[in-house]
Specification:
Bound molecules: zinc ion
Number of domains: 3
Shape: extended
CATH topology of the largest domain: Threonyl-tRNA Synthetase, Chain A, domain 2
Order of helices and strands: HHEEEHEHHEEEEHHEEHHHH
Helix content: 40-55%
Strand content: 15-25%
Largest sheet: 5 strands, antiparallel
Number of strands: 10
CATH class of the largest domain: Alpha Beta
CATH superfamily of the largest domain: Threonyl-trna Synthetase, Chain A, domain 2
């Protein structure tokens, strides 16, 4: 089970698809604040761990993230340190300066490790930036955004200055594959959120706390209505206890009576169906992570194989021992 603090309330799509210039122009002011904050976070991380290589850093529903590769494994214990550096960058109120460059220049700056870095980093090529460059269609302008010493390959848009980021907080770390490809390099994904001011930020975290407090999974378990066992049964699959079962049955009774009174007749459908059905119903795209994570059958198979192997070993030992005893 991952630590609860490590989980994001709404996980974004695993593959951050490249936004078109049109999509980017539509970014809201809040998204600009958040994406700009991702640049500031990268600046801070590089001050602490200069070897970090950055990949994607888009705004997401409740904040932003930036994927990176780094010799240091970043944990939530590092957040205060990173946030401290971020505050310095915001206080410096550096402009987000746009620089349009020819493709060859961008390739050269990636080779030297300068892109997505604070300085040139000989021997530490900006490999993700090279790949991102390849995805920029011929004819589309290639631009950098520079705040302080940090230069990133980015089409924008951002806020005018780092000081326009009102309030922010780093929230979690997760593992992510580059471009969502599980055969690709594994990266560290650092999530954060930002708001125009501290009041809005505080309200957001208060709302999260309230939501946690009012979570039906928590309340239902506390009231002894059901138990959820994510290890043996699965998330979103309650085991109804006697008190809860009474409620379920009463509700079913009421539903049946209401339907009967309205002239409906009942049908029955299977509990399980092909993936296609859940795609059509629209459940799978939205609840894949929270309700329908893949069951790790292979993991169980490996465990079973290990156990069977051990049983065979023990049986052999026992047989040998019995033979020795009887053979004298
Ligand atoms: Zn940017």
């Amino acid at each position: 089970m991952p630590d609860e603090n490590q989980q994001q309330p709404t996980p974004p799509a695993p593959n951050a698809e490249r936004k078109t210039l049109d999509d980017r122009a539509k970014m809201t002011e809040l998204e600009r604040v958040r994406h700009s904050c991702a640049h500031v976070m990268a600046t801070a991380i590089l001050r602490l761990w200069p070897d970090a290589q950055f990949a994607y850093g888009p705004p997401v529903e409740n904040g932003f993230y930036y994927d990176l590769e780094c010799s240091h494994r970043i944990s939530p214990e590092d957040f205060p340190k990173i946030e401290e550096e971020m505050k310095k960058e915001i206080k410096a109120n550096n402009t987000f300066e746009k620089i349009v460059v020819p493709r060859e220049q961008a390739l050269k700056d990636s080779e030297s490790g300068r892109l997505g870095g604070l300085t040139e980093r000989p021997g530490n090529v900006s490999k993700f930036k090279i790949d991102l460059l390849k995805q920029i269609p011929e004819g589309e302008p290639i631009s950098y955004y520079k705040n302080g010493d940090f230069v990133d390959l980015c089409a924008g848009p951002h806020v005018m200055r780092t000081g326009n980021i009102g309030a922010f907080k780093l929230t979690s770390v997760a593992a992510a594959y580059y471009k969502g490809d599980e055969k690709g390099p594994q990266l560290q994904r650092i999530y954060g959120t930002a708001f125009k001011n501290k009041t809005a930020l505080d309200e957001y975290f208060k709302m999260l706390e309230e939501a946690k407090r009012r979570d039906h999974r928590k309340i239902g378990a506390e009231m002894g209505l059901f138990a959820i066992d994510t290890e043996f049964v699965g998330p979103g699959m309650p085991l109804w206890l006697p008190k809860g079962t009474v409620l379920v049955e009463e509700l079913e009774k009421l539903a049946k009576e209401t339907e009967f009174a309205a002239g409906y007749v009942r049908v029955r459908t299977p509990h399980l169906a092909r993936e296609k059905m859940y795609k059509t119903s629209g459940h799978l795209p939205y609840y894949a992570e929270s309700m329908f994570p893949k069951m790790e059958m292979d993991e169980h198979r490996a465990d079973r194989q290990k156990i069977e192997q051990r049983i065979a070993e023990l049986e052999k030992q026992l047989a040998d021992h019995t033979k020795k005893k009887s053979g004298g």
